[in-house]
Design a protein that fits this description.
The chain starts with 12 loop residues before the first helix and ends in a 27-residue tail after the last helix. It is built from 10 helices and no strands. It is globular, with a radius of gyration of 25 Å. It has about 290 residues and is mainly α. Helix 6 packs antiparallel against helix 7.
Length: about 290
């Protein structure tokens, strides 16, 4: 039987053992740091119940909930526009028209190296000088889209390049145009195989929405800052905000893991017929 399709080689026994050892060491170190932090917080009275009871008030959660909705809104808009633009960039970089490929390649390489913070400052201070003043939401979404589109493009391009060349050749031999082959054969398979990587990119995108505080956009971190300045519970407020981010990103990471293990992610090659157990047919023909 052919091995499952993958964008990277499966680790061998020695590599898996090394990964397990380093995972255990990392877990022990992280637990040790958490324990030291809790002891330090306890010594300063930060774990006293009176500093955490305010978070049982529904009004605080309603206030943070508005910021959470803003975070999800910005992330959803960036994901949609970033994916569409990334798909076009990936196809453009793979194009046989040289000038289109050059333009898309230049965009991707530049967008991957320019810090998102610099793009946000450009939206906040640069474009208004030219008469372009976008709403607060778009001052965050547009820079995030510019940056994440390049990442989506590279993920999609990697999936396309990982497909066997026979997929394209078979479609062309059936009389399909190259655009039809890309749209009906190549892209559906490539997107299915890179779906886990696309979801993982959403984790990074969701974290980047925290930069919305720079443009005073009502997202979760910005609401946490305002709340902590009002109630004076800086550590407690940001611990709650951190837990919310961990829950969101943990859910996306779990989704990526399930997509990685789904049965549909098989090799594109037709599996060879295997003789039943007990039969020895070393020279049996293999169907192609």
């Amino acid at each position: 039987m052919t091995s499952p399709f993958s964008l990277y080689d499966e680790p061998g026994p020695r590599t898996r053992r090394r990964i397990l050892i380093w995972s255990i060491v990392s877990a022990v170190v992280i637990l040790g740091l958490i324990t030291l932090a809790l002891l330090q917080f306890a010594s300063k009275g930060q774990l006293d119940s009176d500093r955490w009871l305010p978070f049982l008030d529904i009004a605080i959660w309603e206030y943070l909930g508005v910021g959470l909705l803003g975070t999800l809104q910005a992330a959803a808009l960036t994901a949609v526009f970033g994916f569409v633009l990334g798909l076009l960039l990936a196809l453009g970089r793979l194009s046989r028209v040289r000038w289109i490929s050059w333009i898309c390649t230049a965009y991707i390489e530049i967008a991957r190296t320019v810090p998102v913070l610099l793009l946000i400052y450009l939206m906040l201070f640069g474009l208004p000088q030219l008469g372009l003043n976008f709403p607060v939401l778009w001052k965050l979404v547009i820079p995030l889209t510019i940056a994440n589109a390049a990442a989506f493009a590279e993920i999609i391009r990697a999936g396309v390049l990982a497909l066997p060349r026979g997929q394209t050749e078979a479609g062309l031999s059936l009389g399909m145009s190259r655009w039809q082959v890309d749209r009906k054969v190549v892209l559906p398979q490539a997107l299915r195989f890179v779906a886990p990587s696309l979801v993982v990119q959403l984790v990074s995108l969701l974290k980047d929405t925290s930069l919305g505080y720079i443009v005073a956009f009502t997202e979760l971190l910005y609401r946490g800052q305002v709340l902590s300045s009002f109630n004076g519970l800086l550590i407690q407020t940001f611990v709650v905000v951190t837990v919310i981010f961990l829950a969101l990103n943990g859910g996306l990471s779990g989704l990526a893991a399930r997509l990685q293990k789904r049965p549909g992610r098989r090799s594109l090659a037709t599996p060879a017929k295997v003789a039943p157990a007990g039969l020895t047919t070393p020279n049996a023909p293999v169907d192609r």
